[in-house]
Specification:
The chain is α/β, with parallel strands linked by helices. It has three domains: about 150 residues, 3-Layer(aba) Sandwich (Rossmann fold); about 70 residues, Elongation Factor Tu (Ef-tu), domain 3, CATH 2.40.30; about 210 residues, Rossmann fold. The strands form three sheets. The protein has a six-stranded mixed sheet with strand order 3-4-2-1-5-6, sandwiched between helices. Helix 8 runs parallel beside helix 9 and helix 13 packs across helix 14. It is globular, with a radius of gyration of 27 Å. It starts with 10 loop residues before the first helix and ends with a helix.
Length: about 475
């Protein structure tokens, strides 16, 4: 998108300098607010789009809700300027000051001048015909089709028309830029940052106040480490200009600091357990490939704080029910029984946690297993709206399949004393139209970065097995 202009010239000059974006139906159904996301540029909605929105408005799905919301936005805009529709409706007429362009609706019949091999009856081809017509009418202006449909963009470009994906919903353009939550300090860190350093003890931890150039790249609640001996790992407690306060961590790699019998196997797992066990962090996100220990660490920390420390009343686990292959159909039983087939990862990790107590014996492990299952509730996403969780440990598994709006709905369920833990792998997105840049997990990691009550760790090393590690890299 072009940068916002600081001044507004005459209408004709503005039309030439600004672009005309033709929206596809899937863009409005993906993000109803997309009408107001094109800054100073104009937006065009063909009549076929209104027909498709009408066809998708029924039902309780996210798509149906978005279709209804898009229709409401369009109705509000049209009602504010119904006598001036052919000349365009100001997008800021309803208080959306970030959009200074105009909305144009199709008010005339447009000839479908397309190659014979493109069927004229298909809605996609009708929209492409509209784009071609607008490009011919506004020859001095850039007309761009915006669609989430890859094949539609390919067809438009084949005909010499400009086409783009919808980018405004992306938290990041490149997933490699996603905040990792970890910063490696330079080897000369103490030499360059040790001048006027202060250190003190608080709560059994050592704290250091340092100043230097590296501080400017730090975020609050970021984990930092220094290679070499002695090993130094710390949490950034405060950042103030070129000064920061670093707090040393508890070493969960040591058996005496194990969490529900689980010890960290690498640096990132140690950071993750410190974040999960930190009562000041209300929101923790763990991102990593398969086998890095996300679910196991989250469950171990949850059981420790629920059954041993009594910090939380119970553990609630939910996940998006997107099948990997063909859907197996309706599942019988209660809400929890319907969710059980989706919770294989939970059962696998509970088996590991049950085996962690070698001294309990078979009877002791069976009793522990029953106690654990009585404190873990499996809930469906479909029934989350309107709920408030008090003193709960809420785990959102497979969070990469959530949209930003769904993620907001879930995280805002948290009441007093509740901790929310998001787990996911942004390389395994199964939801249509979601990408690594627009996933709700990417969105929430980026937005919570630097908040004093949140923590994030990107787990790098797989600890499942040598076969799983090799498969993750080679396949």
């Amino acid at each position: 998108m072009a940068q916002r202009k600081s001044t507004r010239s005459a209408p004709r000059a503005r039309e030439i300098s600004s672009k005309l974006f033709v929206l596809d139906t899937n863009v409005l159904m993906h993000d109803p607010t997309s009408l107001f996301r094109f800054e100073e540029h104009d937006v065009y909605v063909p009549m076929a789009i209104l027909e498709e929105l009408d066809g998708h408005k029924k039902g309780m799905s996210e798509v149906a809700r978005n279709a209804r919301q898009a229709s409401r936005f369009l109705e509000e805009l049209v009602a504010s300027a119904e006598h001036d529709i052919p000349n365009g409706i100001a997008l800021d007429s309803r208080g959306n000051r970030s959009a200074s362009g105009k909305l144009y609706l199709q008010t005339e019949a447009i000839p479908g001048d397309l190659p014979a091999n493109l069927a004229s009856g298909r809605t996609d081809n009708q929209i492409i015909a509209v784009v071609k017509f607008l490009q011919q009418r506004h020859s001095g202006r850039q007309v761009i089709l915006v669609s989430k449909d890859i094949n539609m963009r390919i067809k438009a470009r084949t005909l010499g028309l400009a086409a783009e994906d919808y980018f405004s919903d992306k938290a990041l353009e490149d997933s490699d830029l996603l905040y990792t939550g970890v910063l490696e300090l330079p080897r000369n860190f103490w030499e360059t940052h040790g001048k006027d350093m202060r250190s003190w003890q608080a709560g059994g931890r050592s704290l250091y106040r340092v100043r230097g150039p590296t501080v400017q790249s730090m975020f609050v609640n970021q984990y930092v480490h220094l290679e070499g001996e002695p090993r130094f790992e710390a949490l950034v407690k405060e950042v103030d200009g070129d000064g920061a306060v670093l707090e040393t961590l508890r070493d969960h790699c040591l058996p005496r600091h194990s969490v529900w019998g689980i010890t960290a196997r690498n640096r990132e797992q140690n950071f993750a357990l410190n974040a999960l066990m930190n009562p000041e962090m209300d929101f923790v996100s763990l991102v990593g490939q398969a086998g890095t220990g996300k679910t196991l660490l989250a469950l171990a920390a949850g059981l420790q704080q629920t059954l041993e420390q009594k910090t939380y009343a119970e553990i609630i686990i939910t996940r998006v029910t997107v099948p990997l292959g063909e859907d197996i159909g309706f599942l019988p039983g209660t809400e929890e029984e319907k969710m059980n087939p989706w919770m294989g990862a939970l059962e696998d990790n509970l088996d590991v946690l049950d085996q962690s107590d070698d001294e309990a014996g078979e009877w002791g492990r069976a009793a522990t297993r029953d106690l654990i299952r009585s404190r873990i509730k499996v809930k469906s996403l479909n029934f989350m709206r309107g709920r408030t969780f008090l003193n709960k440990y809420l785990v959102i598994d497979e969070a990469q399949n959530l949209t930003p709006k769904q993620m907001k709905t879930l995280v805002t369920r948290a009441g007093p004393g509740t901790k929310v833990v998001c787990l996911g792998n942004i390389a395994q997105i199964d939801t249509p139209y979601l990408t690594e840049g627009s996933s709700g997990l990417t969105y929430v990691v980026d937005r919570f970065k630097g908040w004093p009550h949140s923590g994030h760790i990107t787990l790098q090393r797989g600890e499942r097995s040598r076969l799983a590690d090799f498969a993750a890299e080679a396949l």
